[in-house]
Design goal:
This protein is mainly alpha-helical. It has 20 helices and five strands. The chain has a domain of 54 residues. α15 crosses α16 and α15 crosses α17. It is globular and about 65 Å long.
């Protein structure tokens, strides 16, 4: 009989092997940009060339893209001067450009996320078998596979979000009193997600839940100690956020020492460099970008630019791929990332952001059941069979609703796309796992054979649909009609695009 540790390591190995082949293997195909790679690839190249530039998202995710390019350095002799100035690259705009570097870290994080979600499930259940089986929700999710294999930001966001959740579960289960260092580390991990994409701010809710649990230990008449605890822990957490923020932006600012030729007139530097203020432009000119005492001047400019650009994104999308976040849970509307412009035997490759309908159906059901359970508990005073599991259901339902409420509010200001649903989708995967454990707790303890057979059938169904949709996930050479056949749900609006 294998020990618990050996079984856990074996399950981790299985998850890593599957995740490698679904997320990482041949990640450099297709050898052409798709979706937001048009911009992030050139942003990464700008870091490598030390160029000053502003962009709509925080810098950390793009820095990892640049780091991968720097490690492999496959495009050292490729001329990209025009693309560096215009700020984007389209399809085969550059002959001989290799994507093995720029896609390395996004694909690597997508690959490692499979292990992290298994560890999250195991931390919630302490059940290796269930954690392994339910990891298939992530391992065979077509939408995240196609997105995470590209040089984009969301796999990095999810990686640091999963790390934050995993550390939160460890602290939430920790019986000893949490130290200030624990809150500092939690703040740092949250900061890594936030400064990849601003939507990571939703993870701050985890700190509030953790702090609330800690404060419940104090008696109500001991308000002084509660106030001290609240203040110290909050400061430690915010300090962690600030350390990551300043570090990330210091690296961003230190890398930007070169000015685009378009920002120089008659040998003189323009007052505004790529949106920079006079003070920042002066810092660049005088080579003061390495001075940590002046870091807050360019940081102010970067934050101002992020807010301005995010709110200025047009509600009118010329490609008609924008979608209302209210429709995201049912898959409207998916995105045709692109297709090849060369046709042989009526075949070409297609890349579609298309979810696995089995996963999405169960995740939506889990969210609805979780909301019903919370209402039953708090409004109708229903008894809870497992308080620990219920607490986690409440926490992850709050994360899901908090994220969706925020994007619905943002949707009144700017255009949004369905790939932004990936993080809450994974929250709902965790909810599905929790709801399953909550409902079938007694059957799980008894190791009911019918229940375990049902789990095997569920995983088989997830894998079958993943395999059926995989041609548009990995860009296989297929006909237009074969591409259309992968559309399993008509109202998902995931039509194949022909250029």
């Amino acid at each position: 009989m294998l020990s618990v540790r050996v079984r856990t390591l074996l399950c981790c190995s299985i998850v890593l092997v599957i995740s490698y082949f679904t997320y990482f293997h041949n990640y450099n195909d297709p050898s052409s940009t798709y979706f937001d790679e048009h911009y992030y690839v050139i942003n990464a190249e700008r870091y490598i060339h030390g160029m000053v530039f502003f962009e709509a998202n925080p810098p950390l995710g793009k820095m990892f893209i640049a780091l991968g390019e720097k490690l492999f350095n496959p495009n050292e002799n490729v001329d990209i001067k025009k693309q560096l100035e215009q700020g984007y690259i389209f399809l085969d705009d550059i002959n001989g450009f290799s994507y093995i570097g720029v896609r390395f870290f996004p694909a690597l994080f997508g690959f490692l996320n499979g292990l992290l979600i298994f560890l999250i499930f195991y931390g919630l259940s302490k059940n290796n078998f269930l954690s392994l089986m339910f990891s298939s929700l992530y391992l065979f999710e077509n939408s995240s596979i196609v997105h995470f294999r590209g040089a984009m930001l969301d796999s990095t966001l999810v990686f640091f979000s999963f790390l934050t959740i995993l550390y939160f579960i460890y602290l939430y289960e920790k019986k000893k009193e949490k130290t200030l260092m624990n809150y500092f580390v939690l703040g740092c991990l949250t900061g890594l997600a936030v400064f990849t994409k601003m939507v990571g701010f939703v993870l701050i809710l985890l700190m509030l839940f953790l702090l609330f649990k800690e404060l419940k230990k104090y008696k109500w008449d001991n308000s002084i100690n509660k106030t001290k605890k609240l203040f110290k822990c909050s400061i430690s957490y915010l300090l962690g956020l600030c350390v990551v923020c300043i570090t990330v932006y210091y690296v961003q600012i230190a890398l930007g020492s070169n000015i685009l030729d378009s920002n120089i007139t008659d040998g003189k530097l323009k007052n505004s460099v790529s949106g920079a203020s006079r003070e920042y432009a002066k810092m660049i000119k005088n080579k003061e970008i390495y001075n940590p005492l002046k870091i807050f001047i360019p940081m102010r400019d970067y934050f101002r630019h992020i807010i301005t650009v995010q709110l200025a994104l047009s509600k009118k999308d010329p490609y008609m791929i924008n979608s209302n976040p209210l429709y995201w849970p049912i898959g409207i509307k998916n995105i045709g990332y692109g297709s090849d412009d060369t046709v042989e035997d009526n075949k070409r490759w297609y890349l579609n952001f298309q979810g696995n309908p089995v996963n999405w159906s169960f995740s939506l059901m889990a969210v609805l059941l979780s909301i019903c359970l919370i209402f039953a508990k708090n409004i109708f005073k229903a008894k809870v069979s497992n308080t620990r599991t219920y607490d986690y259901i409440f926490i992850f339902t709050s994360l899901y609703i908090g994220y969706m409420a925020a994007v619905v509010l943002i949707a009144t200001q700017r255009v949004l796309y369905i790939h932004m649903y990936l993080l809450p989708l994974f929250f709902s995967f965790i909810l599905f796992f929790l709801i399953f454990n909550y409902i079938f707790e007694k059957c799980i303890i008894k190791k009911d054979k019918i229940l375990y057979l049902s789990i095997f059938l569920l995983v088989a169904q997830i894998f079958y649909v993943y395999f059926y949709v995989s041609p548009v996930t990995y860009g296989e050479s297929i006909t237009y009609l074969e591409c259309e056949k992968t559309k399993l749900i008509s109202f998902w609006e995931d039509n194949c695009i022909e250029y």
